[in-house]
Amino acid sequence: QVQLVESGGELVQTGGSLRLSCSISGITISRLIMAWYRQAPGKQREWIAHTLVDDTAGYADSVRGRFIASRDNAKNTIYLHMNSLKPEDTARYYCNDYDTKFTWGQGTQVTVSS
User: Fold this and answer.
1) Burial of 73 by CB count in 10 Å (0-12 exposed, 13-18 middle, 19+ buried)?
2) CB 6, CB 20: distance < 8 Å
3) Under 8 Å between Cβ of 80 and 69
4) How far, in Å, are 13, 30, 38, 82 from residue 20 at the CA level?
5) Which of 20, 67, 88, 99 could be disulfide-bonded to 8 (CB atoms 3.0-4.6 Å)?
6) d(CA 96, CA 36)
7) Per residue of the chain (114 residues), what is the pLDDT tens digit?
8) Distance of alpha carbon 35 from alpha carbon 14, whole angstroms
């Protein structure tokens, strides 16, 4: 069974930085497109970034230029480096396979204070 465990979220001030991690077990991610999603209170979960098998990445307009998605296939882990954080980045952050959604993990809460 595939398990997704996100970590690294915390309370941070506007302009700050965080690094989120997502540890995946039960499947090898080396051939998967892995993605980051977030869900703000009262809003639907949205895709924000993905990392391809060659470690290149794609981003939503809302985070492009500020966030960097990366992966370490040897550790079966993906990362989201978040810079220049804004209050509107406040959300619960999740990872998952981009194509075939596994059972969602608990996510990790990021709160950006103004």
Assistant:
1) middle
2) yes
3) yes
4) 16, 19, 12, 8
5) 20
6) 7
7) 999 999 999 999 999 999 999 999 999 999 999 999 999 999 999 999 999 988 899 999 999 999 999 999 999 999 999 999 999 999 999 999 999 889 999 999 999 999
8) 24
